[in-house]
Amino acid sequence: MPVICPTRAMERWTVRIDGTEAVFSCAPLVEDHTAARALPRVWAGRGLGVADVDLPGLVAALGEVMKAPAYWRGRTPGSHQTGTAWSEPRRDPEDGFVYLSGPCGDDTGGAGYRPVYSFSIGVATLRDLRIRLTAYHHAS
Dihedral (C-alpha) 117, 124, 126, 64: value to the nearest 10 degrees? Predict the structure, then answer.
């Protein structure tokens, strides 16, 4: 499993590529005693939520993954399937998170977003996610 060398721009994010999946991990904030408030949130198979402050690091991590040869090996011809695109990001002003519907993690049948330390995203959909988050970040 290739591990992407962290950059300063990635901030709290680390990522590795496992075949056709990229596994993202977000280190908890040391000073945050309630890690669940700062961790990414995943609705398994349905969506992703990321704190506003962590968006630039995630976008940087996505960019680093897309530079890796393992990313291009994982993007087999026809691997970007219709219906796997990410939604437009929306910010929840109450919790300071940005949410997107999309193929994040394995669908476990559970309902709602849950705080997680790591989650997987198919490499075939990373480009779409990066485009949407970059556009959102520059517009806000």
Answer: 90
